[in-house]
Design a protein that fits this description.
Number of strands: 14
CATH architecture: 3-Layer(aba) Sandwich
Helix content: 25-40%
Structural class: alpha/beta
Number of helices: 12
CATH class: Alpha Beta
Number of domains: 1
CATH superfamily: Vaccinia Virus protein VP39
Strand order of the largest sheet: 7-6-5-8-9-14-11
Radius of gyration: 20 Å
């Protein structure tokens, strides 16, 4: 990974149109790994090159999960969701991705017991469990033996360890909805991946996808998602619209106005432009370099609402006087798309 084949222009890995080199020698997730970042104007997609084997990196993440920045919150969710009075509401109040999924399901599933749901990339299992507790007929699928074993131990025997493509051959037209929570950005060939998912879906089925969103972010910020090769892609709404069009699917997006009203947040452009690269999480031997703690928000709801109102007012005032602050509303740092047959 030390020597990079640097080309100023290559074909977009998603749509095939010309894409431009935006950053060479970008620091990867592991110390010593370097990547080139390209951006395609045609489908508004950013991607990293070259591709790299991530198996050892994911082994390191799962082995140290409780202490890995960005991933440690998943271990907290796994524990907290079991004691939450309303597990799905707890997750939806914790971050945008789960809130978007909750909203999408409310639109798509009028009768919970008559709709079969598959969470693809179910990981530690907390979302599939939360859906079960909410009354949905849900199953979790993951390729990791370790993750599935942990999910079964924590929540019960409704998780499957299989490769998607093999599972799609075994279960054609078996599900009404497939959920991908922060999965698509990890996949090397996302269009082919979605094609396999479509085999699992019944007629008029739906795919719910959440992923980091670059739609609002200025083009001079070349990469603001997990470092490659953990994330191969940084997608925009245009990216997902291209995928939907290619596969002859309808697409719609969840409006996050209600979420950001209760969880006001801003994107500080000046700060992002000063620091493009994130510090690597793993050293050259694959050991964890840094540690961060995560504590779920247990503040009473009425106190949270008062704090949110005060923060929302402050952010909007700040944005009036400081154009370097982008206050999220309908869109933010995460998008939730619904792809429909």
């Amino acid at each position: 990974m030390d020597r990079l084949d640097i080309k100023q222009q290559i074909e977009c890995e998603l749509c095939g149109n010309p894409s431009q080199l935006k950053y060479k020698g970008f620091q990867g997730y592991q110390l010593g790994m370097k990547f080139n970042i390209y951006a395609c104007d045609a489908c508004d997609t950013s991607f990293s090159m070259p591709r790299a084997d991530t198996s050892l990196i994911y082994d390191a993440i799962y082995s140290n999960g409780k202490n890995v920045p960005g991933y440690n919150r998943y271990w907290s969710y796994m524990n907290e969701v079991k004691t939450a009075e309303k597990p799905l509401a707890f997750l939806a109040n914790s971050e945008e991705a789960f809130w978007g999924i909750q909203q999408a399901l409310q639109q798509l599933v009028p009768n919970k017991t008559n709709s079969r749901i598959l969470e693809l990339g179910s990981g530690l299992g907390y979302l599939t469990y939360a859906l079960k507790e909410e009354g949905y007929d849900s199953t979790g699928l993951d390729i990791s033996n370790e993750a599935v074993a942990q999910a079964k131990k924590s929540f019960g025997d409704f998780y499957v360890c299989r490769d998607l493509h093999d599972y799609a051959l075994e279960k054609p037209n078996a599900y009404d909805i497939v959920i991908l929570t922060e999965v698509i950005e990890h996949i090397e060939a996302p269009v082919g991946f979605i094609e396999s998912i479509l085999k699992l879906l019944k007629k008029d089925g739906h795919i719910i996808i959440t992923t980091p969103d670059k739609t609002l972010i200025p083009s001079d910020i070349v990469w603001d998602t997990e470092a490659p090769p953990v994330h191969h892609w940084w997608f925009s709404e245009t990216s997902l619209q291209y995928m939907a069009s290619t596969l002859d699917l309808d697409i719609s997006f969840i409006n996050f106005s209600e979420y950001y009203y209760n969880h006001p947040e801003a994107y500080k452009l000046k700060k992002r432009r000063k620091k493009i690269e994130r510090a690597p999480i793993l050293d050259e031997k694959g050991n964890l370099r840094s540690k961060s703690d995560y504590t779920p928000d247990n503040i009473p709801e009425e106190v949270q609402q008062k704090k949110a109102a005060a923060k929302r007012k402050w952010l909007k005032l700040k944005s009036l006087f400081n154009p370097k602050t982008l206050v999220f509303d309908e869109k933010g740092k995460t998008m939730c798309a619904i792809l429909s047959k």
